[in-house]
Fold:
Amino acid sequence: MKYNPNEIEAKWQKYWLENATFKAENNATKPKYYVLDMFPYPSGAGLHVGHPLGYIASDVYSRYKRHQGFNVLHPMGYDSFGLPAEQYAIQTGQRPEDTTSVNIDGGTDKEGNKIAGYRKQLDKIGFSFDWSREVRTSNSDYYKHTQWIFIQLFNSWYNKNSDKAEDISTLVSIFEKEGNAPETSGLNAVCDDTIESFSANEWNAFAKEQQERILLQYRLTYLAETEVNWCPGLGTVLANDEIVNGVSERGGFTVVRKKMTQWSMRISAYAERLLQGLNVIDWSESIKESQRNWIGKSVGATVEFNIQNSEAKIAVFTTRPDTIFGVTFMTLAPEHELVSQITTPEQKAEVEAYIEKTSKRSERERMADVKTISGVFTGAYAEHPFTKEPIPVWIGDYVLAGYGTGAVMAVPCGDERDYAFANFFKGHPEASGGMPEIKNIFANVDISEVAYGSKDNVIIANSDFLNGLNYKEATKKVIEELEKLNQGKGKTNYRLRDAVFSRQRYWGEPFPVYYVNGLPQMIDAKHLPIILPEVEKYLPTEEGLPPLGNALIWAWNTETNEVVNTDLVDNKTIHPLELNTMPGWAGSSWYWMRYMDAHNENEFASKDALAYWESVDLYIGGSEHATGHLLYSRFWNKFLKDKGFAPTEEPFKKLINQGMILGMSAFVYRVMPSVTVKKLVEFGNMENVKLKKYFISKNIYSNVLSGDFTGIKSIIEEVENEYKAQDFIVEWNFVKTNYNPIHVDVSFVNSSDELDIEKFKNWREDYKDAEFITEENGKYIVGREIEKMSKSKYNVVTPDDICNEYGADTLRLYEMFLGPLEQAKPWNTAGISGVFGFLKKLCRLYFDENGLIVANDAPTKDNLKSLHKTIKKVAEDIESFSFNTSVSQFMICVNELSTQNCHSRAILEPLAIVISPYAPHIAEELWSLLGNTGSIATVDFPLFDAQHLVESSKEYPVSFNGKMRFTMVLPLDLTKEQIEEIVMKDERTIKQLEGRTPNKVIIVPGKIINLVG
Structure:
């Protein structure tokens, strides 16, 4: 027999599929365990070897839990809506649903490219997924339930008294009986800041449309004019995490801030619960800290400043109300609604120019840039609430409209950024008298060079009734006085802002919303799904409407309850539907619950299924989702818990972030020195020489950079010989920048870093005539560098290639062997052969060229020791997610058993089980060869027996005058006297002593034997 991985793996993958080996049962008698991977976005690029890392780890753990007797749910699906598919559709004219389908299932795209397909690639690696529960967020039977959840959010408000979401009808009931004033109704709701008070009588007298507008200010999903990241190049709003360095991550288009009417989610209502929930989940501290910072809890006070000569007021939130007498100026975000109202005519042009300029910077860029100081004086002055002194009002892009109130009271003596701003503009012409001297309100503190930001040991000075008080005393006192003036109160604030939920895209979930007189109405859940319509093009309309504005059939008939032709809109019985679609995170905010009951047509999951699976026990995915998906999914889960659907407060008990597998890029080096030739007779005439495409090998490249041009002597001579005959002088200019490293496809390079020159020349038309300067041995050696694995760097290694050459079990073991799961590590294909060799060595314990060689011989003590050492180590490693050291232990064990010439069934049968989570195909084959029926997947994991690791003997080093001369194995239960007697009678001792009697015999039982003298 011979180890043939391709044959074995195809056989067992077929068996698992036909026998539904990994199908999880709802309400099984076994204890449940739910393992989840962050599901992938299916791009046409397919998987590279970095993608399966987390999937392999979760699969190892899932298989191990099955061996332990758990009913394991380990599902997989696709986050198949999103911007990449839409952009590809725009570029190629293909339907996004078609390209998405090909990317998942495989096939050929419109341009003739063969796409392997995610499903085939995943199957090839041998994952134990329960494919019967597969979900695709772009399928209408899935997004039907996403639409339903949106309706639940719309029909809910957040009651701070009960600290949970409640049905909107309970809020209406309060309005009808008590109005909304807290002092009369006891209402404590999360709502817009601009809400106005009304009595029950007033509410009941309001027209229906007015009531609906008021309710929009309370609903958990609502329409509002919001500052968004608008990308004209893509024609859509972008989330912060879709912007890199001020441009769109996809396409590199300019992004500007602008106001748009958008759907938003009132995630801010859950800020405190999201914060507190971090204390009860087993996540890495770094992810928790990212979320804590994003939520950004601050305790302080709100303060209102009146604007001089105006009815306007500026509200600020501050964590340091004790410093109110140190306010030197105020700063508004450039987008603040008051800016246009309060700016004086003299400052208008300058203010408008500044607003235009800052609109091109993303919020993330503005937050990160702490060095640049910019701002403009509005010409307006606020009034200090206590002293009534005028305070100049500025705008500056370091203040964000969406954080706090979009305004700050600047206290330069106590804040570094305010300090820098004040000093930068003090005395500048653009300050226009709007930057006073910095006020110091700290006793015995020097602020001549730096602000004093500490709260500790502060004594307030120059602050009227706060003089002599410390931070806590002054904070309490100033809040009391502000409340007396009705110009402030104590408040807890959060940085977390409501999430914009609209996208001006086509390829996303349609909203179940139509409009009557401009007000949103929800389509009844029984008429869902509202299916994405066909459109001729996926770009915005000529009028600038979202792509759904191109749909011919996109209106709602309230009588027949169906989508009808857009031309039929009469705003009586037929109304326009929402043209925006939901963002990419909509479908991923609840998908783990759909896996629990994936084929339920009536509910997103039944109560029984939800009660059985509860939540995800182990979640594995990338840390890049810390403040996106992981925050939104916790929010939706808590909301569904409030409404009686989700059984738990938190969706994911334990979270592990896998590290990135980095690519080993390859480079060739083009030599392009500056060459100038000058005619001797006509010295003024000069000519630049265009060289051929020369590529120099890595070592020659290194030498040239250090000034040694020996390696490119042939290039120099060729050019000089051509021009010298014509009486030209040739001048060379060798500058480092003239040597251009170019990425080359790693498939053209062997394990010794040698380039296949012919493949490279045939790669692209412009390289066909390239000439290569090689090493002395005639080899062209490429440069190497570890980078992110990417198609653009030509360093992608596909798992398909590895599986075809070495087998999936080799790939699985190697990826686990690379290093700790949570660390980034470079991929080096050269290491694959060693793991493949290990698997062949494992097989030789079970069979040779003639067949099975396993016997029923009783195992030796050494056999049992090797096995149980491995059982113990592997179980501990899997439980602690230290998968790399398990692979090392497998290698040690197989080496030991090979040395021991072990072919005992009592050892090799349990060994196959222990290795099966890592290398399931070969484990299944060995299990079958041993005469077992059925799959190895659910066989009990072997129990560790400690007695096999108890040493009964010891190999002693026997030393003479401290130098070890030989070893001897002795029972551990011998006394010192018995050991000495045996040693002294040993022929080797007699030979060493040559008739002498040692002065001293030092014996430490279980450790050393040393004869001295």
Summary: The two ends are 60 Å apart (CA to CA). The longest strand covers residues 221-231. The chain is about 30% helix and 20% strand. The longest helix spans residues 861-879.
